Amino acid sequence: MLAFLTQEFPSAWRIPLRSWTNDAVSALVVNFGDVFAAITGALLQLLIRVERFLVALPWWLVVLLVAVLVWHATGRRIVSGVVLAGLMVLVGTFGLWSQMMTTLAIMLVATVFTIIIGIPIGVAMARSDRLKMWLQPVLDAMQTLPSFVYLVPVVMFFGLGNVAAIIATFVYAVPPVIRLTDLGLRLVDPEVVEAGAAFGASERQTLFLVRLPLAVPTIMAGINQTIMMALAMVVVASMIGARGLGQEVLRGLQRGDVGLGLEAGLAIVFLAIVMDRITAGYSRRWDHTAGER
Amino acid sequence: MAHIVAEGLSKVFGPDPRSVLPLLERGVGKDEILEQTGHTVGLLDVDVTVEPGETFVVMGLSGSGKSTLVRCFNRLIEPTSGTLTLDGTDVLALRPRELREMRRSRMGMVFQRFALLPHRNVLDNVGFGLRVQGVARAERERRAGAWIERVGLQGYERSLPRELSGGMQQRVGLARALCTDPDVLLMDEAFSALDPLIRREMQGELLRLQQELGKTIVFITHDLDEALRLGDRIAVLKDGVVVQVGTPTEIVTRPADDYVKAFVEDVDRSRVMKVRHVMTPLGRDDANAAASQAEGAVLVSSEALLQDVVADVAAAEGPVFAVDREGRPVGSVAARTVLAALARGQRDEPS
């Protein structure tokens, strides 16, 4: 009866998760190859366009744009604008300008993709406690699962290259948008929601006229985190063939070229600082509840 | 003109409110119900009729169920049992779409903490009800602009709520409620969050607007002075039960029980009682009627509050007469009866 109470874990107890997964992945690749190819193609087209556009922009225009955006986001602080634009120039002096534009393109597409999918999921999650209960552990898993685990299947589905990088980045970076959209919607002042209902707003009107606008600062904080996480993935993504700054870091590692690694690494940090200041600035600027009497 | 009739309205909070109704019908007390079933009784068998065009004040301490009652009127809270009609329409039978329609066109609401949209300017906030109705922008702004002017906020159209003082924010709240031109105005502790001085100012503003508009107003408050000043009639609510409904004078002079009595004990009666409550009425051919025309007679309006005539009565050399709106004498006023009326509050106290 109690034969399983041995010192060793019973070897007969074996859940073949490994072969199940392998079978499922192969089946997906074989049966839905066309679908994945179509997604890959569409994303690639989009990415190429964005990248071409960014690379074609004169460098000084980009620097100026960054300066103006930072200045506007931080509530018209000229010093911030000048300093952060200076960081961009510094990246140019490392000879990494075009790599930065490539990374920026991958990041922008991944972020937009994340927002488009993440916000509706967050909205659904705020409406249903049951969904939240189920989704919460999935989001936790997405954030804690070592990214190398899903890099391989992502490559199997989407091939090596920038598209696989976008998908991997998406998996890693989408949880904060979902979580903070949910949180922002749940934190909206119930009296204001009640006022909406008292004036006869439908659920849809309440969502678009009251709840979402009031949740914008929190959602922006989620987008800010998403961008930071996307940048953290840049180097990992370069291992599955993404070009840009991550590739330079990887090259520095492989060749023992510490200087190159540092330059590319700093470029990633500078890009992160710039993106952070812009999104965090807007998150604060749009927070109309702050400082309310 | 809207006419609200609630009969036997009850509200029970908890996981299964309906299960508690039989207990309520058997007369089991609130505390017992909470202990036995974990349900809270918010309102119990409330009968109120709000007459068209009157300001009906619901007064009670916190937890008395007054905010629950006003939310039952537009079904932000669903009553557990009872009936509710607005001009004969069964409000509780309305389907979601009809209910939204009723809220959009017939009822405006003003909230204690204003509940304005913080990211929208004054113009957009006032026009919110019209936006919900789908009114085009230009029309919306025209109508909202007119109301902003009427509540004295012209020049602040583009300001955000947080840039305004509390009193100004509540003016926005009031304009928002009036902008859809509803028949009924539900005001939930609308002035309670304001400083005393601003509160009095807003009360005056409401009285002034009400004189022009003649809306049916349901006004919730915990402040007796406010209730007496604004209310045509007052319902006193205690633990979800209506203890007394009456005019301010009735509430003050004939409190229904000790609870109401304790409430009105300290009130300044001269601010509630009117000349007609203390005058000795004149018969049609009363000899005194002629005397009112005599030289030296002091005439006061029968509708004036005692606080406004005490000085005149005290200073009068000759007889004092109360006159109606047309100036016809309707009663004689003796200084002694005025004093007695004002003193009654204290004299009753020991009993």
Q: What is the level-2 CATH architecture name of chain A?
A: Orthogonal Bundle
CATH-assigned homologous superfamily of chain A: MetI-like
Could you say which overall geometry of chain B the principal axes of the C-alpha atoms support?
A: globular
Please name the fourth-level CATH homologous superfamily of the largest domain in chain B: P-loop containing nucleotide triphosphate hydrolases
- Order the strands across the largest sheet of chain B as they lie in space: 6-7-8-3-9-10
Order of H and E elements of chain B: EHHEEHEEHEHHHHEHEHEEHHHEHEHEEH
N-to-C span of chain B: 44 Å
CATH class term of chain A: Mainly Alpha
Total beta-strand segments of chain B: 14
Low-confidence stretches of chain B: 347-351
| Largest sheet composition of chain A | none
Number of strands of chain A: 0
CATH top level of the largest domain in chain B is: Alpha Beta
Strand content of chain B: 15-25%
Number of helices, counting only DSSP H or I runs of 4 residues or more of chain A: 13
Instruction: List the helices and strands of chain A in order.
Output: HHHHHHHHHHHHH
CATH fold name of the largest domain in chain B: Rossmann fold
Shape of chain A: globular
Task: Give me the CATH architecture of the largest domain in chain B, please.
Answer: 3-Layer(aba) Sandwich
Q: Helix/strand-derived class of chain B?
A: alpha/beta
Provide a descriptive summary of the structure in words.
With 293 residues, chain A is mostly helical. Helices cover 81% and strands 0% of the residues of chain A. Chain A has one domain: Orthogonal Bundle (MetI-like fold), CATH 1.10.3720. Chain A has 13 helices and no strands. The longest helix of chain A has 31 residues, at 97-127. Chain A is globular and about 75 Å long. In chain B, the strands form 3 sheets. A 6-stranded mixed beta sheet of chain B has the order 6-7-8-3-9-10, with helices on both faces. In chain B, helix 7 (137-150) crosses helix 8 (166-179). Chain B is built from 16 helices and 14 strands. Chain B folds into 2 domains: 4-117 and 183-267, P-loop containing nucleotide triphosphate hydrolases (Rossmann fold), CATH 3.40.50.300; 272-346, Roll (CBS-domain), CATH 3.10.580.10. In chain B, 40% of the residues are buried. Chain A binds chain B through residues 189, 191-192, 194-202, 205, 209-210, 213-214, 216, 286, 288-289, 291-293, and chain B through 74, 76, 100-105, 107-109, 111-113, 115-119, 128-129, 131-133, 160-162, 165-166, 169, 176, 180, 186.
